[in-house]
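ok, trying the design again with the full structure, not the truncated one.
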C-alpha cells in the first residue's frame, strides 16, 4: 500500500504558511514505514526542532483504478478516516529553500497517524464532514471538507492520472489552518464530526 498526500488544499492554510495557491493539487508520497504503529506514542525525531501537527481527512481505496473519471470516483472508496501528517517544518523549509524534495521532512518513520476508519454511509455527504484536532483538550485545528479546494472525488480523478490506485491505499486530503509545533507529553485527539477516531501521546 502507499500513502498519497495532498498539499495546499485549504485556502486558510495556504495563507497561514504564505505559500502560493497552486493551479493543480500538490501531491507527495509517504512510505508504509511512516505509519505510526497502533497504540504507540509519536516520538519527536532528533533531526527536528519544530515538528508540526497537520490533521487531515483520509480516504481508503477499496479497488484498483487508473484514469478514474470523477463521476465514478465514489465507487473506489467506502471508508473515511482522520489522521495526522507530521511535518518537520524546519527541515522542510531548508529543503524548499534549496529546491529539494520534502521526503525527509514528511515521510520519516512515524510521520503518518492513521486513525479509525468509519463507513462512508455514516456521513450524509463526504463533502460536508466536520473534523477537528484537540491538543491537550483544546481545539487547535478544525474545518469542514466543504472548504477543500479540490473535493475527494476530484482528488481521486487527478491522482489516478499519475498513480494507479490499489486496494488499501490511503489518501491524505490536506490540512486546514492551525498547524503548530508539538511538544513532549502533548496529547493529540482527532474527531470526525463528534466521533473520536484517534488519540496519541507525543514523546
Amino acid at each position: 500500500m502507499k500513502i498519497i498526500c495532498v498539499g495546499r488544499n485549504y485556502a486558510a492554510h495556504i495563507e497561514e504558511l504564505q505559500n502560493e495557491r497552486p493551479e493543480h493539487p500538490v501531491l507527495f508520497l509517504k512510505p508504509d514505514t511512516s505509519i505510526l504503529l497502533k497504540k504507540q506514542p509519536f516520538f519527536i525525531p532528533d533531526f527536528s526542532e519544530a515538528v508540526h501537527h497537520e490533521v487531515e481527512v483520509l480516504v481508503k481505496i477499496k479497488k484498483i483504478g487508473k484514469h478514474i473519471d470523477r463521476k465514478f470516483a465514489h465507487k473506489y472508496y467506502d471508508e473515511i478516516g482522520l489522521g495526522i501528517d507530521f511535518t518537520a517544518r524546519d527541515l522542510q523549509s531548508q529543503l524548499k529553500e534549496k529546491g529539494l524534495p520534502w521526503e525527509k521532512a514528511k515521510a520519516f518513520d512515524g510521520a503518518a497517524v492513521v486513525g479509525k476508519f468509519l463507513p462512508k454511509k455514516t456521513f450524509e455527504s463526504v463533502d460536508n464532514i466536520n473534523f477537528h484536532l484537540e491538543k491537550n483538550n483544546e481545539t487547535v485545528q478544525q474545518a469542514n471538507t466543504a472548504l477543500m479546494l479540490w473535493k475527494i472525488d476530484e482528488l481521486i480523478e487527478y491522482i489516478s492520472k499519475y498513480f494507479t490506485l490499489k486496494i488499501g491505499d490511503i489518501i491524505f486530503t490536506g490540512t486546514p489552518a492551525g498547524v503548530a509545533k508539538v511538544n513532549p507529553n502533548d496529547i493529540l485527539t482527532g474527531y470526525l464530526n463528534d466521533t473520536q477516531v484517534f488519540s496519541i501521546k507525543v514523546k
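Keeping the full-length input from now on. The chain has a mean pLDDT of 95.
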